[in-house]
Design brief:
Blueprint: E1 6-10, H1 14-25, E2 31-36, H2 51-54, E3 72-75, E4 79-83, E5 88-91, E6 94-97, E7 100-103, E8 107-109, H3 128-139, E9 143-147, H4 151-162, E10 166-171, H5 177-180, H6 182-194, E11 198-201, E12 205-208, E13 215-218, E14 223-225, E15 228-231, E16 235-237, E17 249-250, E18 252-254, E19 260-262, E20 265-267, E21 272-276, E22 279-283, H7 288-304, E23 317-321, E24 324-330, E25 339-344, E26 349-354, E27 362-366, H8 372-380
Parallel strand pairs: 1-2, 1-7, 2-3, 7-20, 9-10, 9-15, 10-11, 18-21
Antiparallel strand pairs: 4-5, 5-6, 8-16, 12-13, 13-14, 17-18, 19-20, 21-22, 23-24, 24-27, 25-26, 26-27
The chain binds flavin-adenine dinucleotide (FAD).
Length: 382
């Protein structure tokens, strides 16, 4: 295979930055151009729902550090199209030729929409601007309605309770179960309720109000109102700019075991969908660790083709909420009662394994000092 001379990276966040750093770390001396739609240097989103929203951490602390000095960083530039035949990316600053392309355009917040109000301004939390806007709204609010009880929604709820707001979380399924499984999901929900957070499970949810939603109505007719309504209902991959490119795009850009989408093109992070051992369907894993793991493999695949190692996700993720520092690796949503490797889940400090300690497919550390690397090893050892 031919090593590219000019790699263009579309995306300005952790996946893009990790590809760029890996390329240079591997001794790649060709030209690298990084295009980021946001007009600010790469930053991490992780603290936006935690320390930044709580006001404990200044927004500037989220900066990830600059790419190597010889990388052309083009901020405020959006990729608008792709022609793989002529190896050209169309951008808001004109066409850009490439030999190697990295698709790292990530995802955006899913909006539920307000029937009858197509221009309604739904409050979401994805970007730093969103975080600052929400923080500002909270400073004038005494009640918050969070729509969606995944990691993000529950973190927002936890931070808002910490700020003394009256908080209600509404979801169409018990919050967290689809991520942590029902055993740990129930324990965290109990902690949330003890902290004064109201949790409502309803069959269907419709937002109400404009210009910003101020209430929701459930399918069974219950109405909930709050000073601030935040939607945390998942994310949508940023793939529209690839329309007509011929790449396989479903719920994300389809990639092979080395993150390749087409000759000379890789896709990484929240925008990429791949199959994994035990999960043959093309799925995205929208977590920080996955973005880093894929980015490293993709950079090696651009340089070494089939000689690059295959991507094997650790599926490591974490969340902090309601006094629970939860780290997990392996398959999400484990079923049944875990084997306790250490501690006691009822006291809120434990190391747990599913289905058993001999061949765990999922491990979770709850307020437990086990380092991430050990959690990953425990599930990889199978
Ligand atoms: C508030 C919040 C808290 C989180 N907390 C955690 C956590 O505790 N643990 C965890 O594991 N994960 C967490 N995550 C998820 C984690 O942040 C994401 O998985 C990670 O950001 C994915 O990185 P990425 O680079 O693939 O995509 P993104 O971070 O989405 O970055 C994509 C970048 O590409 C840019 N872009 C998009 N389209 C274009 C285009 N056409 N042209 C040019 N640029 C474009 C975007 O502006 C953006 O800068 C959190 C996410 C949020 C929002």
């Amino acid at each position: 295979m031919t090593v590219p001379r000019h790699v263009v990276v579309v995306g300005g966040s952790i996946a893009a930055l990790t590809v760029v750093n890996t390329l240079r770390g591997e001794g790649f001396e060709g030209r690298v151009t990084m295009l980021g739609e946001e007009p600010v240097p790469p930053y991490t989103r992780v603290p936006l729902s935690k320390g930044v929203l709580a006001g404990r951490q200044p927004p500037e602390d989220t900066e990830l550090g600059a790419p190597p000095a010889d990388v052309e960083l083009c901020l405020g530039v959006r990729a608008t199209g792709l022609d793989p035949r002529s190896r050209t990316v169309r951008t808001t600053r004109g066409d850009m030729p490439y030999d190697g392309l990295v698709i790292a355009s990530g995802a955006r917040a899913r909006r539920l929409g307000v029937p009858g109000h197509p221009m309604s301004r739904e409050v979401v939390l994805r970007s730093r601007t969103d975080g600052l806007h929400l923080r500002d709204r909270l400073s004038h609010a005494s009640s918050v309605l969070v729509v969606g009880g995944g990691f993000l929604g529950m973190e927002i709820a936890s931070t808002c309770r910490g700020l003394g707001k009256r908080v209600t979380v509404v979801d169409i399924a018990p919050p967290l179960d689809a991520l942590t499984g029902p055993y740990v999901g129930a324990l965290v929900r109990q902690a949330a309720e003890r902290a004064g957070c109201r949790i409502v499970v309803a069959e269907g949810v419709t937002l109400v109000g404009a210009p910003a939603p101020c209430a929701l109505v459930t399918a069974d007719g219950r109405r909930f109102e709050a000073d601030v309504v935040v939607t945390a209902a998942g994310d949508v991959p940023n793939v529209e700019w690839l329309a007509g490119s011929g790449l396989r795009v479903g719920r994300g850009v389809h990639v092979d075991a080395r993150c390749r989408a087409a000759p000379g093109i890789v896709a990484v992070g929240d925008v990429a969908a791949s199959s994994h051992p035990g999960s043959p369907a093309m799925t995205r894993i929208p977590t920080w660790t996955n973005a880093v793991e894929q980015a490293r493999i993709a950079a090696l695949a651009l340089l070494h083709g089939d000689d690059a190692p295959m991507y094997r996700p650790s599926r490591y993720g974490w969340t902090e909420q309601f006094g629970w520092d939860l780290k997990m690796a392996g398959d999400p949503a484990p079923a049944g009662v875990p084997t306790v490797l250490d501690g006691d889940p009822m006291t809120g400090r434990a190391l747990l394994a599913w289905p058993d300690a001999r061949a765990p497919r999922t491990v979770m550390a709850i307020n437990h000092p086990t380092p991430p690397a050990r959690l990953k090893r425990l599930v990889r050892a199978v």
